[in-house]
């Protein structure tokens, strides 16, 4: 029997649903909100601290956000855009800390300098050009550059121990970087949602969605315990179910999902909690990706702080599984096939042989080979100090392209029904870090008749709402300083 109607149904217990639910609860406190998560708790898939890099993506150190043109110029536009998005997240979190929605900042965000480290004359020249471009941007104030081994050693000692003499290398460093525990952040947001009346249900798997004549959605679900079926109606549905979002959007029947597919890529990290090693490295250090490797596989050596304990992670190393989620189905990859997406997916496979070669190469690496890869960062790394941990699944978007037929997209994309009554999110990095910006865009698209009325409260929550910071140096400096203070971050 139907349980009645809710104003908003959020499918999936990750950071995206938590962010959208929190925004809507702040903007429309009388709305009924329900959350369905198929696992026994929230934040167990891509939002879990050990299933993602937790970087707090601000494009401070990720080279793929500053591509080099054929003429040798470096374009900072994407890096600036991502940094703008992350600043919105920081403003939102700082306001929620101030209002008691979130716990002490150290429970989910900590200061961790962001660095880029490269070797070889070509990459050193590129990094220097990148530095010269970014240092002029207000949001990248404080970026440092060095080719001096003594300076780099003071930034990150593990990088420089027993480094080969005569090898060209360089690094940049931004002291204002962060490490984010998105698992803790997600749990805190859902706790507050539940405390303020949201119906947050775990062990609840959505099976079917059907749009009704009145514009609402009939959603059928099944409880994991007892396999009990149920049904609920929702005026608005958000599918924030990670890799399963494609499945559910396909089941909804909206034509906008036609032509989309996803390619699953898993990951592993090397992890150490050896106090002697952890004490010598406090930074997130990114480098160049291997030839043929996707952007999500850029190697990095990260300080992580999870539940108050510091550790180091290195990776990721790609793995393959046909599952769209860590707790998915072995039939996911074939179950997605539809007449509208098989052409684009085959074209992606044809156009990306280097990706297949890269994956095969990754799959044959054993623990020793993976530690060998780590030694490009940490020359003194010992096999016994590092253990392999399994990270989450990433469902990379494949979609139609009018020129190429099909393309593999690295990033996130919101799919919205024509009437705005349903939306879902596909894709991966830099997702979690830019969740606030992505959800603000969704609000504008799905609630166009309400967004103007919501603007005063949105400006309270996110002072830079509707504006850019990088074009206003004084505003950028003020916002960076205020959020750093509110989140107890130190450079």
From TrEMBL:
Pathway connected to this protein: Carbohydrate metabolism; tricarboxylic acid cycle; oxaloacetate from (S)-malate (quinone route): step 1/1
Membrane-spanning parts: none
An example molecular function term from Gene Ontology annotations: L-malate dehydrogenase (quinone) activity
Keyword Oxidoreductase recorded: yes
Stored HAMAP family: MQO
Organism in which the protein naturally occurs: Microbacterium gallinarum
Family under the similarity heading: Belongs to the MQO family.
Cofactor: FAD
Gene3D superfamilies per the UniProt record, alphabetical: D-Amino Acid Oxidase, subunit A, domain 2, FAD/NAD(P)-binding domain
Matches recorded under NCBIfam families: mal_quin_oxido (TIGR01320), PRK05257.1-1 (NF003603), PRK05257.1-4 (NF003605), PRK05257.2-1 (NF003606), PRK05257.2-5 (NF003609), PRK05257.3-1 (NF003610), PRK05257.3-2 (NF003611), PRK13339.1 (NF009875)
Keywords: FAD, Flavoprotein, Oxidoreductase, Tricarboxylic acid cycle
Catalytic activity: (S)-malate + a quinone = a quinol + oxaloacetate
Name of this chain's protein: Probable malate:quinone oxidoreductase
EC number(s) on file: 1.1.5.4
Enzyme class: oxidoreductase
InterPro entries tied to this protein: FAD/NAD-bd_sf, MQO
């Amino acid at each position: 029997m139907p349980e009645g109607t809710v104003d908003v149904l959020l499918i999936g217990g990750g950071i995206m649903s938590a962010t959208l639910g929190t925004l809507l609860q702040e903007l429309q406190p009388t709305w009924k909100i329900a959350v369905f998560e198929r696992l026994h708790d929230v934040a167990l898939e891509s939002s879990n601290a050990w299933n993602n890099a937790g970087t707090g993506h601000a494009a401070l150190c990720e080279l793929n956000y500053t591509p080099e043109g054929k003429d040798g110029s470096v374009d900072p536009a994407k890096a600036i855009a991502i940094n703008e998005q992350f600043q919105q997240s920081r403003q939102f979190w700082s306001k929620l800390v101030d209002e008691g929605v979130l716990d002490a900042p150290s429970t989910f965000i900590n200061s961790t300098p962001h660095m880029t480290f490269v070797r070889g004359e070509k990459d050193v020249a590129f990094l220097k050009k990148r530095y010269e471009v970014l240092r002029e941007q207000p949001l990248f104030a404080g970026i440092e550059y060095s080719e001096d081994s003594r300076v780099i050693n003071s930034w990150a000692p593990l990088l420089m121990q027993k480094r080969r003499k005569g090898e060209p290398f360089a690094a940049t460093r931004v002291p204002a970087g962060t490490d984010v525990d998105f698992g803790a952040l997600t749990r805190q947001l859902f706790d507050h949602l539940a405390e303020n009346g949201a119906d947050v249900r775990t062990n609840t798997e959505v099976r079917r969605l059907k749009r009704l004549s009145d514009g609402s959605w009939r959603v059928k679900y099944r409880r994991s315990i007892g396999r009990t079926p149920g049904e609920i109606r929702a005026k608005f549905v958000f599918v924030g179910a990670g890799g399963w979002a494609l499945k559910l959007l396909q089941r909804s029947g909206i034509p906008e999902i036609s032509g989309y597919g996803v390619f699953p890529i898993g990951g592993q990290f090397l992890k150490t909690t050896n106090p002697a090693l952890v004490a010598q490295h406090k930074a997130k250090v990114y480098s160049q990706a291997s030839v043929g490797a996707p952007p999500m596989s850029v190697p990095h050596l990260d300080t992580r702080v999870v539940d108050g304990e510091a550790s180091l992670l290195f990776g990721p190393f790609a793995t393959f599984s046909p599952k769209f989620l860590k707790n998915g189905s072995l039939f996911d990859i074939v179950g997605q096939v539809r007449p509208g997406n098989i052409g684009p997916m085959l074209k992606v496979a044809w156009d990306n042989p280097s990706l297949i070669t890269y994956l095969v190469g990754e799959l044959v690496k054993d623990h020793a080979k993976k530690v060998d890869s780590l030694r490009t960062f940490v020359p003194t790394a010992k096999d016994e100090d590092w253990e392999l941990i399994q990270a989450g699944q990433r469902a990379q978007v494949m979609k139609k392209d009018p020129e190429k037929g099909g393309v593999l997209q690295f990033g996130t994309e919101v799919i919205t029904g024509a009437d705005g009554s349903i939306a879902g999110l596909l894709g991966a990095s830099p997702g979690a870090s830019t969740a606030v910006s992505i959800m603000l865009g969704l609000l504008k698209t799905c609630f166009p008749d309400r967004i103007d009325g919501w603007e005063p409260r949105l400006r309270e929550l996110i002072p830079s709402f509707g504006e850019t910071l990088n074009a206003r140096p004084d505003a950028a400096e003020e916002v960076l300083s205020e959020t750093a203070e509110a989140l107890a971050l130190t450079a």
